[in-house]
Amino acid sequence: MTTTAEVAAERERHGYLLVHFVEDQVGHAEKIHLSLSVGDDPLRWTRLNGGRPVLESTAGTGGVRDPHVVRGPDGFHIVATDLRVWRPEGPDWWAYRHRGSRDLVVWDSPDLLTWSEPRLVTVAPPSAGMAWAPEAIYDPVAGEYLVHFSAGLAASGDPDDPDPEQRGTGPSRIMITRTRDFVTFTPAETYLELPGGVIDMTLHVTPVGVHRFAKQDDAAPDTWQVFHQRGDALFAEDVTTLARNIGDDVAPQVEGPLVFQENGAQRWYLWVDQYSRLPQGYHAYVTTDLDSGRWDPVELQLPEATKHGAVIGLFRDEHEALVRHWPG
């Protein structure tokens, strides 16, 4: 009898899926878009569904940004920031940052083709001003997902203090929570703090260590901007900073790093999202030595205004099913 593990091992890895949103200066595009690699090429991409979004949230703020997709034993989950920036009168970043949504928007799918209705889940503590750029990784040992996001807490530092004096929240930090079902979450705890604030963390776990990438605030003294660190474990206290100011050759302001390994190769790609000029969107770097901290620029063929998201590797049958279901 063939086991489930043996069937999975026989499936051919082929192609990649990018879950993202689109920045639009004149209309509301803060919805979930899917882009698919051209064949197994991690540097050539096309938007599915004729470039139209495939998912939309009408709950909460009515917009979603910075989505992330994770594969687990129960299927796939998308988590996204509950935030609508676009509006005819212009954005109010102070309000978004200090009085924004403490919720995430979640979708579930068994196959990347059919998705549940969106639901809001509250993950940030009462004193938080926002819950931005969520990501999830599955822990097979514990049988649960770790979900992390960026949040600033009230000046008192008490997670249960909802900032009664209306002073605004403090510098953004990375907070982490756990869930088994993306419905019930443990109380969020601080995972990473840096002077001036830190946002947009993404994790890449290997058999011998954990690599984390994040963005230190632009205004922080001697800011690292987008940086790369390595530790022996997720909660290791001793971490090594391998690279700083990644992307400063592209633009003075970049954020939203994502990282993934090429199918069947010792090669990794790091994308950073530049937002200081139009058109905004991703630029790519590559390395063949993840521990070196050296990232070399590489040409990326991706539609402009493709914003902050996540890439997962696919199996051939999944890639072909996505093409059939949502043609480009």
From TrEMBL:
Record field: transmembrane: none
UniProt-listed InterPro entries: GH43_arabinanases, Glyco_hydro_beta-prop_sf
Protein's UniProt name: 1,4-beta-xylanase
Highest taxon in the source lineage: Bacteria
CDD domains listed in its UniProt record: GH43_Bt3655-like
SUPFAM superfamilies registered for this protein in UniProt: Arabinanase/levansucrase/invertase
